[in-house]
Amino acid sequence: MPAFCRHACRENTVKRLPRYFLFMMLAFAAAVLATPPATHAARKPPKRSIKKIAGDLYRFQNNFHFSVFFVTPDGIIATDPINKGAAQWLKTELAKRFNKPVKYLIYSHDHQDHISGGEVFADTATVVAHKNARADIIAENRPTAVPDLTFSDKMTVTLGGKTVELTPVRKGHSDNMIVMRFPAERTIYVCDIVSVRSVGYKTLTDAYFPEWINSIKVVEGLDFEIMALWVAN
Ligand SMILES: [Zn+2]
Questions:
Q1: Which pLDDT value is given to residue 27?
Q2: Closest C-alpha among 184, 231, 196 to residue 59
Q3: pTM of the shown model
Q4: Phi and psi for 149 in degrees, rounded to 5?
Q5: Per-residue pLDDT reduced to its tens digit, 205-216
């Protein structure tokens, strides 16, 4: 190869490199811009399921959280709807599996991570909660249906010959928590005041001490064999 060619080729190569490099950089930038953010790519659909607890009482799962519902000949008694998407999914599943409307929707307490989305069932259901919960739901503008039926002492809801007993546990985790007992199924549904293998959630928001221990004593005084918890451990 002539000396001038070697020189010219090397020069040519040296001159071309920045253009080639620039092209690679532009291609890389275009690829990055075209890729959706990692959070979008990694977002998974919520894990939802329905499992029988006992008799006609079922557990409803939305990711790490669980509420219960009770099927009777005259309709369904649902509890914490969890959130709007979960409630819409549950409503569709209930229609498919049982072909019955939700006649009662019972809130455990006013916190929105439990009761958001109640409006999904409000077309057919009477919404039930402790009277202090109703006041907080309105004051805090919770994204859910405002309860139609409230109580301050014990209350029993009967539908289709089946019953659920609602027991306030006084101050502890909020001032409006109730425990739901399904006597024939020997089961209670409890939220937030009982945490298995943990003390409680983060900073124990909206907590009253030392009254909390009295709430646990109320739960201990109930007659049951199965405890259905809000969080599975
Ligand atoms: Zn709570």
A1: 53
A2: 231
A3: 0.80
A4: -125, 120
A5: 778 778 888 999
For range 170-195, the mean pLDDT? 93
Q: Could you tell me the distance, in angstroms and rounded to a whole number, from the CA of residue 140 to the centre of ligand 1?
A: 14
The CA 156 to ligand 1 mean position distance, Å, reads: 22
Sheet with 155-159: strands ordered across: 155-159, 162-168, 178-182, 187-190, 226-229
DSSP structure string for 14-50:
HHHHHHHHHHHHHHHHHHHHHSPPHHHHH-----EEE
- Contact 114/142 with Cβ under 8 angstroms? no
Ligand 1 center from residue 130 Cα (angstroms): 14
Compute the distance from residue 116 Cα to the ligand 1 centre, in Å: 12
Give the Å distance between the CA of 33 and the centre of ligand 1. 41
Query: So what's the pLDDT on residue 159?
Result: 98
Q: In angstroms, rounded to a whole number, what is the distance separating the alpha carbons of residues 24 and 18? A: 10
